[in-house]
Predict the structure.
Amino acid sequence: MSDPQLWLAAAEIGCFFALVALSIYLVVVGASFFNFAAGPYAMAAALLAGYAGAHWGVPILLGALLGIALAVGISLLTEIVVVRPVQRRSGGAELPALVAVTATLFAIQQLAGTILGRTPVSVANLVPVPDFRVSSVSVQGTTAIIIVVTVVVLLATVVWLRTTSTGQLLRAVGDNHEAARMIGVNVARVRLWAFGISGAVAGIAGIVFAAKSGAQFTSGLSWTLTGFLALVVGGTGKPWAPLIGGLALGWVQVFGSFYFGATGSSVAIFLVALVFFAFRPEGLFQRKVRV
């Protein structure tokens, strides 16, 4: 446990979990809804970025923009075509919308596999950072990009939520959308902001992580599960809670795998999740709803 290389690996995978959790968090805050399709958004963005580079010869930055745009578009369509109509017909009940979004998750995966291919795709690093060393720790360029991008995206999200009118409206609608509607807030538009930015964050997460691990059309489900569990651990009380939950889960995965093997790592992650579900379902940082 004193090996700094393992701590770096935990930070790397934890940052990815945190970005997917942040994507889910934004929809929770803006629409009071768990959007389990965040993982497939990340997967679709990574596949398109890799596909565009391999088949169209576009540079990675342009491919990344295409991937992020795709993730934003799919996320907006999820709200407009799936979540909003289902919630309207069910009187705002959450379960029918959750079932519909789960079906959407698998539909996105199969559609991405059909269009972009069912074989694993490699994605170039956003910036060609060479590997380097910090004392005795070897740092890969992809690792540095994942950590830096996570910090930048998280800081930008916190600033946006706290200092801009759209960010404050997002929190107001998430706290009490009926009250927000009564004072004239365009709730439908605010929800679109939540889904759109959530899609962008998921797309960024998928692209930077795929440069490390690659991506395939089945990646979306596992990415959603780990992002959701990171949010369960961190909670929804603070914008940086997904980062805390992601890093904690990354620590469990890396050190669990080191000491107990891959199977032990998976068991440890779900044991941690079960403990939080049973004894602290609100996570480490509990959300305080303003009324």
